[in-house]
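Summary for the steering committee. One of the milestones for this cycle was to obtain a three-dimensional model of the protein with DGJ bound, which we needed before selecting residues for the alanine scan. The sequence and ligand used are listed below.
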Amino acid sequence: MIKEHLQGSCISIDAKSWSYQIEIRHGKYLVHRYFGKKLSGISELHQKRSFKKNYGTIHPDRTFNEFSFETELFELTSPGKGDYRIPLFNGRSSKGSSVFSFTYDSHEIMEGILDVHGLPGVYAEEGDSASTLKITCRDEDSGLYVHLYYGVLPEFDTLLRWCCFENRGTDPVSIERAMSFLLDTPEDNFDVLTLQGAYARERTAQRHRLTGGISSFSSLRGISSHHMQPFLGMLSPETGENSGSALGVLLVYSGNFLFEVEKTAYGTVRITSGIHNQGFSWLLEPGESFFTPQAVLVQSYEGLGGMTRSFHRLIRTRLCRTDHRDAQRPVLINNWEATYFDFTRNDLLELADEAHNVGIELFVLDDGWFTNRSDDTTGLGDWQEDRKKLSGGLQELSQDLLKRKLKMGLWVEPEMVSPGTQLMQEHPDWVLGYPEKELTMGRTQLVLDLAHPDVQQHLIDTFTRVFSSADISYVKWDMNRCIGEWRSAYLPPERQGEASHRYVLGLYRVMKELTERFPHILFEGCAGGGGRYDAGILAFMPQYWTSDNTDGVSRLFIQHGTSMVYPLSTMGSHVSEVPNHQVGRSTSLDFRLGVSMAGNFGCELDLRKLTKPEKQVLSKQISWYKRWRPVIQFGDMYRLKSPADGEDSSLMIVSPDKHKAVLFWYRRLHDASLLPPVIHLSGLDPSIRYLEERTGASALGDELMHRGFPVEEPEGDFSVRIYQFVQDENSASRKL
Ligand code: DGJ
């Protein structure tokens, strides 16, 4: 709820468990007043602690010196006016000035969540008590107006922040930095949580103490990247899984991004995030507006777990769209690791027969189905089916799959082009980079200039044709290289700084158009594994290929980190063969299945090579998964033990009504001297009696949570135990 107080000089935003307060000081300056545990009102008390006069203090206004831009907590900064902390905005007016003095102009409170023009974002549904505050500030000299947006979804404890810069002046303004929000805090005792990694090690959770100065976390790879997530957690040092304050900030953006945190000399902290300013600029002509991406702030007082569950519910139900948002996701097989580029139609149908026999529902034909694609050096861009590999083409294959009760999925990589292809010959200027210089290759491919509207339209037309060419129910949208050469032949020299952001806007346009044209298709994002697993893509595609690394041990860490923010329904999680193709490790089939079933399950292996008993295990596990997937994909997740805290790790998922729960427990390396583990469950209803179906054990929720549930003795290295709890209708069963 958003309310005005004290004759409109203060505004409060309230969610379920927190309040946010803004003050319009002296009718001019947007001061940040409070963000913390929910308050029942607002007082006239101004806290002057943020002002201390000294030789370093600069006053923005000649008429009074009881106020300093250096130390005050703000909602918006005015570059050049004495606030030396990280700014929200930097720019240059047509006169060459980099000084902008933004003062309060007006504000408006609106129902619902407004759209962020051209960019994806969280939305509200009917019945949500969502509202949006828009505060407008202006710089008199240039005529540049800044609209600060605050959207609140109280039930999700979520605040959405973004900005719009509008040129109401008569001359152009060059934007050189436009962050999505700024948050000042009056204290500085924080731990910082980031999700970092590399290819095949995406989103590993890292926590460290915030130190003085500026810490920054970013990507300049043109994609949100394997290396750093557009996410930052600001935690109280004592915050754990179940208690303490955790603020999570997630940027809904898929390109170059920047998070900065400044711990100042005055015991305050400033947090900001948005499009990375390196290499970025945007020429704003009179009458034009520029919107920043949306930042999602989730504040929890129930530890990291509380933050996670709010993010999961929000992303699942208020960010993801399409028909598939609330639908159970099919168990799929992907032929990539089974065949790579080397397959015939017959191979695929043999795999399909095996897939059907074990209960798989969808067959995904990965890379290599189109002409000139026997390796990764060529073919991208000429999207014609390879009739040599696929006699009868895609349509006949989709019919053959349907006869085996399998839906068909197809891999594509729309944003890329291989040298030597017809597309490259016809449109050499459709590639990003300087053609007169040697273009930088990544996986022997070049990047199409999605900043160019003709390229966007070409992709929309081409993939409309491809997706209509057969009975396709699923698409894996891949993107296999980072981008560096930000030069677009479409843009004039003075607008080259816009290329990276225009690429992302172009990508969103293409994705929006195609996902709307094919609402029945389930889209899964991918970028060389999980290189662009972010909220921007999830707004169009409700699931993502988590990582090419399918090794069970590696996946425990990757999935643990990913789960901090992203729901299990979004997390593509496949069982693969051993030795694992990425790390060469061998673990038991049970262990690999146990890890991959704690996500959106699929298979990525040559089923023909499995022994009969292995196929029986797989088939049994798939029927188990189908029964439990509503809980796994749409329940509330609780991390019970992190893989970083020893050889054992554990998580559980509880159905929203708390009547059902699944517990996953893993041991990597065994220790024969350890007592059998007892796990303290979470999220159950203390007064419900639960029956664990496999062991027949029965106990009340409070006992399972506080006294714990005894896990059976593990058998050795790479052990897994999965337990399923249902409400016990017959309390006569064996007690714990
Ligand atoms: C990278 C993906 O992560 C893999 O799963 C596979 O689709 C290959 N690309 C195909 O080129």
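Key point for the committee: Residues 336, 366-367, 411, 478, 480, 526, 528-529, 545, 548 surround DGJ (CB under 6 Å).
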